[in-house]
Amino acid sequence: MAVSDLNPALCAPASSRPHPKARPGYGKRSVPEQCPPRETDFALLPDRERHIAGYVDALPEGAAMDIKSLAKSQPLYGQMAVGSALRALGVAGHLRHVRCLGGESGESGDQVRWVTRTFWSRVAHDNEWWDTFLAAEERRSVPMPTAKAVEPPVPAAPEVGARAQVPAPAPAAVPVPVPAPMPEPAPVPTQPSAPVVPQQRTAGPRSDPQFPSGPSPAFAALARLGRTDSRLALSAADCAALEQAAAEWFARGVDADYLTHALTAGLPASVDSPFGFVRRRLRDKLPPRLPATTPTGPGTPVRRLMVECTECGAPGRPEAFRDGLCRPCRESGPVVRPAP
Q: Is residue 86 located within the same domain as residue 137?
C-alpha cells in the first residue's frame, strides 16, 4: 500500500534565544555509528513529532532535553505538546531517557549521584535493539580497577668470583649531653569553677536541636520546588507538614536532585493543590529501601544504569519498559504510533 505522507522533516525555525546546555553529565547523547542526516529521516512521523525530531536531531551533544527547555527554545509548541511529542518519539524508537550512576557524593560515600541522559537515534529502533545497546552502555560505565603499586626492584646478588664492594664504615656516634631536669613549678591552688548555666531555648520554627544550622535537606528541597516549577510552589507550613515524608526519601539514599526530578516529572498543565499533589507523589513514588550491607562479591553485579519512563520519569530496569514506557503509563491511554 502506498504511503501518502512522505514529507521531509520540518526545519525548526530559528529562535531568539539559544538552546541551553545541560549540566555536566546530563543532556543529549547520540548513539554511535549513525548515518548522515537526510531529508526523509522522519518522513513517517506526524507533523508535530517530525518538527520536534528535526529540532532535537540538530541539537549538539550535552544539550538540555527537559520539556521546559525544549518548549522555551522553539516557538511553535508549548510544554504539553513537547511532552506528548517526546512520548511519541520514544514509542517510535528514537529516544530513551536513562538514569546513569555518576559517582558517589560526599566523603563518607553514603549517597550516590545519578545523572539523567537522553540517548537519541536518528534511525528508529525496536525494544530489543535498545535493550542490547543499554546493556553495553552499562558495561562501559563500570569503572576500571585501579593499578597496583609497582614494588621497587630488588638488587641482584653479586656474581661468584667478582670483587665485592665493602661498604664504608658508618661514622661513630657522638655522645649528646643530656640536659639537667628542670625543677617542677610550685602547685597553684585551683579555684572553684563557675556554675554552668544551661543554654536557653529560643522560640522559632527551626529550634529543634536536630537542625542546629538551619533547615533540614528535606525541608530545603521542598522549599526549592516552587523555584524549579511554579506549579509546585509550597508555603512554609506546607514544607513543614511534608518534611517528614520527604526525609524518608533521604533516609533511603537519594539526594535533593533525585527528589526534585521525581516530584516535577510529567506535571499536568495546572496543579490545583500543590500540597496535595506533592503529598500524593511523596507517598506513591517512594523509592525502595536498600539493605544496610549489600554484598558486592564477584557474582553480584552493581546496577549503574536505569531506564526512565518517557511519560512519568519512573526509573527501572530496561527489560521492564516497552517503547520507553512503564506499565502504568502504557495502560493509562492509547499510544500514538507512527504510520506504517
A: yes
Q: Which domain, by its residues, includes 283?
A: 217-290
Here the cell at position 152 is 621497587
The pTM for the full model equals 0.49
Residues 319 and 240 in one domain: no
pLDDT in tens, 65-84: 888 889 888 888 999 999 99
Q: Both 284 and 316 in a single domain?
A: no
Answer yes or no: do 256 and 325 share one domain: no
* Domain co-membership, 263 together with 328: no
Cα(first)–Cα(last) distance of the chain, in Å?
A: 10
In a domain, 131, yes or no: yes
Q: Are residues 229 and 136 in the same domain?
A: no
Q: pLDDT tens across 20-62, in order?
A: 888 887 889 998 888 888 888 888 899 999 999 999 999 999 8
Q: Are 45 and 338 in contact (CB under 8 A)?
A: yes
